[in-house]
Amino acid sequence: MGFGSAGLTFFNPVARSLIEAGASDEVKEKTLTDLIANLQAEDWDTELDSLQLFLDDPAIVRVFANNGIRWDD
Predict the structure, then answer these.
(1) What's the pLDDT tens digit per position in 57-72?
(2) How many CB atoms lie within 10 A of CB 52?
């Protein structure tokens, strides 16, 4: 059984906070890479839902891609 609430509970709020705080791409990438890896280890199964919310942020899109999650148009 997957970890469906991980995006709503963990990833999305952290990503939004980083954006609102004006974090650099480097900070976003370091923070979110580790977060995604940990959530995937817990069987996160709604990654694409979260990725879709942040398609306008190239750093966040890279983080997902580096973790094997890509948005195919």
Answers:
(1) 999 999 999 999 999 8
(2) 11
